[in-house]
Amino acid sequence: MTKSELIRRLADANPNLYLSDIERIVDAIFDEITDALVRGDRVELRGFGAFSVKERDGRLGRNPRTGEAVDVPSKRMPFFKTGKLLRDRINGDETGGDDD
Asked: Alpha-carbon dihedral of residues 35, 1, 78, 98, nearest 10 degrees?
């Protein structure tokens, strides 16, 4: 599902809201999640999952075309861990349970 499809589904489910308002709400949510991750915070959405940032150490890599050694610097990467309720729903267990 793309962001525009998400907005369209929300608009279909909420005909009393303007499409432009739904777009602003979705953008605000994504912006807040992004800002929290930039600050190094963890974002947990109960029943869905948790977003966090993990540090990847620098390493010595290889250029696949030339075989030359290349220094790959350390970096921060976004990471998402699904919640138990989401995993259970995906696997067909509708009863769910407590979230991780």
From this structure: 90
Q: pLDDT tens string for the chain (100 positions)?
A: 999 999 999 999 999 999 999 999 999 999 999 999 999 999 999 999 999 999 999 999 999 999 999 999 999 999 999 999 999 999 998 665 554 4
pTM: 0.75
Give the dihedral sign, CA 59/41/30/100: positive
| Domains of the chain and CATH, by start | 3-90 (4.10.520.10)
